[in-house]
Design goal:
Helix content: over 70%
Largest sheet: none
Structural class: mainly alpha
Shape: rod-shaped
Oligomer: single chain
Number of strands: 0
Number of helices: 1
Mean pLDDT: 87
Low-confidence stretches: none
Strand content: under 5%
Distance between the termini: 53 Å
């Protein structure tokens, strides 16, 4: 049960990290697009 909770926490963290990566990739493109 404890392991399952830990796994859930890791999965949540992984989702947040993936989102951050997507933002890091797309945000500069969006900003440069705005400046053009």
């Amino acid at each position: 049960m404890k392991n399952e909770h830990l796994l859930n926490k890791d999965y949540d963290l992984a989702k947040k990290l993936r989102l951050l990566c997507l933002i890091a990739i797309f945000l500069p493109k969006y900003i440069t697009h705005l400046h053009d």
